[in-house]
């Protein structure tokens, strides 16, 4: 047998890691000395012999993925209780990011979960964070997925605060394999088709594997599902008088409003206007038609401009409710291995792929004023103006949902390339080494269709009769026409066949953005035994790595220059580099003595030098103890770090519109806590606000959503996390394993993006107004209105989470087949998030048991295998929750959200040695989300919105 020990050599690791063991591999049993291989487990760079890892690791094999009908590794992670939803097809529908899929261990944020591929970093999904787009991973060649919980910065560097997801791909294959999968939902839409080709070759000194996979996933809209179209309507309770009368402020609306779409009565595709107190829409010829209000608004004090019913004119929110975006993805993967000699080998891994998605949004909400003498007005409108006594220069407000027939659509195309060249082998027959070079690049081209150029829109709406034709007008300061505007096509908002193609071409445009994220890594490691103690060999691993990341975002000129009828986006570019060196040691303290079959201490330290935040050190200390054969105990404590993302540091700004109130408004001062009112008044006076008790911002400022800018902060520092884990593994028999692990995370200096309201409040409530850092984030215009708040990230948050992970496995072999059972569960006991540690008004806000943080999450699988047949049933459970832990009856009468369980059925049958058939029924009982206003249509990814789904697949090998 070759003495070459490749890092990809894992034997019996699936069952071994579930129990916390690693495995011995016998080289031969022919009477010679037993040659034992080492294996490497996620969470450590040390290749070990038989030993329990101090860090808990959850493993899913490639067979587990096939049995569960998984076509995207993101689906697997979303079913894992210790992971929350990151960005997904259902949650990621915004501009410039649709279609990306990420994971989020512990719910601590996708940027705090490190995703590795074959133990190494993979290029990130976007310029905004370090999360890896799981769409980029070809599922057909996944060998297994290892999830390690707890901080791992001492081993892998930044980002590994919540844990590490290590996706291990096949490194070789011998033969050809064709795979086809089709997935259909019972209610229609949301289908998926997958086609994969894998081939490769293996011989004595070289091997390779190549895979190409194409996936086409369909869209799913709110109107495609009955449980969403059967709306739940709430309202302000007319019977409620005070906050202390025991009557809920919010209740379910009367039955006639239930199941009816909500309609914003100000906007309609036909256009709307209020003239003489009557609300009209414009007919096919532009004539005035009284607006239909459906079954009308809810009773006062509810908004009287929100109507209900399919017949009501206006913007129907349900028409633009999108559950999941469509996605097309192409993945290619190539791995080549070549043995140079018995001691050294070289490997090359290349991955390239493309993804494309489209996310719909509503048309532009247009609100403009048209002059009474605009020639496009229909005659009955002109007659109404005359009857109202309006002058030619008067303006009539018009609201309209889009111009033409298009919605706004977010097109997101990504292309990625990731490469790794490594040299690995043995030194002096005792030490494993690896040297590697990586380069990855992800480009993202996004387009926001259905937009309008603001200046062109205003020009085109100002139409007049000039030289006997309707043309765009040029006017003097008094509003008199002085000529026609060159190159402008007048825009007619009225009628079924309006506006003209020329006017649409003049007004409509698309916003674009080009983003690039690149990563270069040079690293190496050496591992082996340093020396021998009475209890065994002291193992070590030394690693060093240099990493450079660059990112840039280049919006189109129209978006940069604020020319669109929308928010502006600014260009930015940034980069950082980091040099790291790490040391791990595993020290056997006791072996084969009373109450210590094994006692091992592990320690790791990693020193990092960032070009952005300077020097950082992460460390980890762990203990593995086996007092008796059936019981193993593990404990770790560690410090992890996370450097700020490039976007957090260098993002130059995206315009946003967010509602907030001016703390200096006399009305707001009277509503502020009594102990702060004098401080607020004094600070407002120092800022030039007139005193006297009745100052208010202008009506124009109060009636609109103020502008703000979301940008970066180059002064950010690293986050730090301390975590503790304590676990026990009980194996009473070879086929039963029970595990329990307590965990506790504490994150200091966590990044938070404070709200605009928090920024202005903290400024005027401060005792150091002149030097307060919040006051520097906004200014006031000449009329004293706040003109712009800069919402930048800051190291001001603190977060703590505590809980327990449970796992149980049972395998039973019989004469009529084998049975296996697996249960994973997570119990969350505490969660605290302080957005601003300097907030003197902060009080603990309990969130455990709310919908985002259920106390219990669990998944289970029962599988049966008999010869060539496999049948499995899996379940996913989410405990009952509430919307608000601090709820009182004064708030509403629908706070409680019921528990939710989904069941899946999977089967697989080897028809011949070459042909395998498989299928599944997901959500086999067609469970809809809990029937509650807070959950029935919320696209947060917690519940299945597809309904009962059927999957058929076939794999043919030759």
Structure description:
The structure is a single chain. The model is unreliable at 1-37 (pLDDT under 50). The chain has a 22-stranded antiparallel barrel. The two termini are 28 Å apart. The chain is globular, with a radius of gyration of 32 Å. With 958 residues, it is mainly β. 9% of the residues lie in helices and 48% in strands.
Descriptive keywords:
48% strand, single chain, 5-stranded mixed β-sheet, 22-stranded antiparallel barrel, 958 residues, mainly beta, disordered N terminus
Task: Map the helices and strands.
Elements: H1 13-18, E1 39-40, E2 47-48, E3 57-61, H2 62-67, H3 73-78, E4 83-85, E5 103-105, E6 113-117, E7 120-121, E8 142-149, H4 153-156, E9 163-169, E10 175-185, E11 192-202, E12 206-217, E13 220-221, H5 226-229, E14 234-236, E15 250-252, E16 262-264, E17 272-275, E18 278-282, E19 288-290, E20 306-308, E21 315-316, E22 322-324, E23 327-339, E24 344-361, E25 365-371, H6 379-388, E26 395-401, E27 408-427, E28 431-452, H7 454-461, E29 463-466, E30 469-475, E31 481-484, H8 501-507, E32 508-533, E33 536-555, H9 557-560, E34 572-593, E35 596-610, E36 614-628, E37 631-642, H10 646-650, E38 654-657, H11 666-671, H12 677-686, H13 699-703, E39 707-710, E40 719-733, E41 736-753, H14 756-764, E42 778-780, E43 786-791, E44 793-814, E45 817-834, E46 856-866, E47 869-878, E48 881-882, E49 896-897, E50 900-910, E51 915-922, E52 949-957
Parallel strand pairs: 6-9, 39-43
Antiparallel strand pairs: 1-2, 3-8, 4-5, 6-7, 8-9, 10-11, 10-52, 11-12, 12-23, 13-22, 14-15, 16-20, 16-21, 17-18, 18-19, 23-24, 24-27, 25-26, 27-28, 28-32, 29-30, 30-31, 32-33, 33-34, 34-35, 35-36, 36-37, 37-40, 38-39, 40-41, 41-44, 42-43, 44-45, 45-46, 46-47, 47-50, 48-49, 50-51, 51-52
């Amino acid at each position: 047998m070759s003495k070459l020990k490749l890092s990809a050599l894992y034997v019996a690791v699936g069952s071994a890691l579930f129990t916390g063991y690693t495995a011995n591999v016998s080289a031969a049993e022919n009477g010679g000395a037993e040659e034992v291989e080492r294996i490497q487990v996620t969470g450590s760079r040390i290749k070990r012999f038989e030993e329990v890892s101090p860090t808990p690791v959850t493993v899913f094999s490639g067979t587990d993925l096939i049995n569960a009908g998984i076509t995207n590794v993101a689906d697997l992670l979303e079913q894992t209780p210790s992971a929350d939803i990151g960005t997904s097809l259902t949650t990621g529908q915004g501009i410039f990011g649709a279609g990306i899929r990420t994971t989020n261990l512990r719910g601590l944020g996708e940027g705090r979960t490190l995703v590795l591929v074959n133990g190494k970093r993979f290029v990130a999904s976007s310029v905004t964070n370090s999360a890896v787009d799981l769409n980029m991973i070809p599922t057909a060649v996944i060998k297994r997925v290892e999830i390690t919980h707890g901080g791992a910065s001492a081993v892998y560097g930044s980002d590994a605060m919540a844990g590490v997801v290590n996706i291990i791909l096949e490194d070789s294959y011998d033969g050809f394999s064709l795979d086809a999968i089709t997935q259909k939902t019972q209610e229609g839409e949301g289908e998926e088709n997958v086609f994969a080709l894998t081939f490769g070759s293996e011989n004595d000194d070289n091997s390779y594997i190549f895979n190409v996979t194409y996936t086409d996933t369909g869209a799913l809209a709110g109107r495609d599902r009955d449980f969403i179209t059967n709306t739940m309507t709430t309202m302000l309770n007319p019977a409620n008088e005070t906050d202390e009368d025991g009557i809920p402020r919010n209740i379910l609306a009367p039955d006639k409003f239930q199941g009816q779409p909500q309609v914003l009565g100000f906007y309609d595709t036909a256009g709307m206007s209020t003239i003489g107190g009557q609300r009209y829409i414009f007919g096919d010829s532009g004539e005035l038609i009284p607006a239909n209000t459906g079954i009308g608004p809810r009773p006062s004090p509810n908004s009287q401009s929100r109507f209900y019913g399919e017949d009501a004119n206006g913007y129907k929110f349900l028409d633009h409710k999108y559950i999941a975006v469509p996605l097309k993805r192409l993945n290619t993967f190539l791995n080549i291995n070549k043995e140079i000699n018995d001691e050294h080998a070289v490997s090359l891994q290349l991955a390239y792929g493309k993804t494309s998605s489209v996310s719909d949004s509503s048309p532009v909400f247009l609100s403009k004023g048209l002059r009474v003498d605009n020639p496009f007005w229909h005659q009955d409108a002109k007659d109404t103006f005359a009857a109202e006594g309006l002058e030619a220069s008067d303006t009539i407000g018009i609201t309209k949902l889009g111009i033409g027939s298009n919605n706004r659509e977010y097109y997101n195309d990504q292309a990625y390339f990731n490469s790794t060249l490594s040299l690995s082998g043995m030194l002096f027959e005792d030490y494993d080494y690896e040297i590697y070079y990586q380069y990855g690049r992800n480009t993202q081209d996004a387009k926001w269709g259905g937009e309008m150029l603001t200046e062109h829109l205003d020009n085109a709406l100002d139409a007049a009769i000039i030289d006997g034709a309707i043309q765009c007008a040029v006017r003097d300061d008094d509003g008199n026409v002085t000529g026609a505007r060159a190159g402008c096509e007048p825009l007619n908002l009225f009628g079924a066949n309006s506006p003209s193609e020329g006017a649409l071409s003049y007004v409509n445009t698309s916003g674009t953005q080009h983003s690039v994220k690149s990563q270069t890594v040079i690293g190496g490691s050496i591992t082996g035994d340093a020396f021998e103690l009475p209890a065994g060999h002291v193992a070590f691993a030394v690693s060093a790595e240099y990493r450079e990341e660059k990112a840039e975002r280049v919006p189109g000129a129209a978006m940069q220059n604020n020319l669109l009828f929308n928010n502006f986006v600014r260009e930015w570019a940034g980069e950082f580099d980091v040099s790291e060196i790490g040391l791990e040691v595993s020290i056997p303290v006791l072996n084969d003595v009373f109450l210590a079959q094994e006692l091992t201490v592990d320690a790791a330290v990693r020193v990092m030098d960032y070009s952005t935040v300077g020097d950082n050190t992460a460390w980890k200390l762990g203990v593995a103890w086996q007092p008796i054969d059936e019981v193993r105990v593990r404990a770790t404590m560690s410090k992890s770090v996370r450097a700020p993302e490039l976007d957090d540091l260098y993002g130059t700004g995206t315009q946003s519109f967010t509602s907030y109130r001016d703390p200096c408004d006399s009305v707001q001062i009277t509503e502020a806590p009594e102990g702060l009112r004098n401080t607020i008044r004094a600070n407002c006076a120092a800022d030039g606000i007139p005193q006297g008790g009745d100052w208010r911002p202008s009506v124009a400022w109060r009636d609109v959503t103020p502008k703000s800018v979301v940008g970066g902060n180059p002064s950010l520092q690293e986050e730090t996390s301390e975590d503790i884990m304590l676990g026990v593994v009980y194996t009473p028999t070879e086929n039963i394993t029970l595990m329990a692990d307590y965990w506790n995370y504490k994150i200091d200096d966590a990044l938070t993006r404070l709200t605009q309201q928090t920024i202005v409040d903290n400024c005027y409530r401060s005792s150091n107004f002149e030097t307060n850092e919040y006051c520097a984030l906004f200014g006031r215009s000449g009329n004293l209105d706040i003109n712009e708040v800069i919402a930048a990230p800051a190291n001001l948050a603190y977060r703590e989470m505590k809980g327990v992970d449970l796992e149980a496995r049972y395998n039973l072999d019989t004469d009529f087949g084998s049975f296996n059972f697996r249960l994973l569960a997570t119990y969350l006991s505490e969660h605290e998030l302080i957005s601003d540690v300097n907030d003197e008004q902060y009080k603990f806000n309990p969130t455990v048991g709310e919908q985002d943080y259920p106390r219990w999450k669990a998944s289970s699988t029962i599988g049966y295998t008999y010869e060539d047949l496999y049948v499995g049933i899996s379940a996913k459970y989410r405990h009952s929750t509430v919307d608000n832990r601090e709820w009182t009856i004064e708030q509403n009468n629908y706070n409680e959200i019921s528990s939710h369980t989904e069941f899946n059925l999977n089967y697989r049958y080897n028809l011949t040695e070459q042909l395998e058939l498989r299928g599944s029924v997901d959500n086999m009982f067609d469970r809809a989300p809990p029937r509650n206003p807070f959950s029935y249509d919320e696209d947060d990814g917690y519940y299945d919105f597809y309904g009962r789904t059927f999957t058929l697949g076939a794999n043919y090998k030759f």
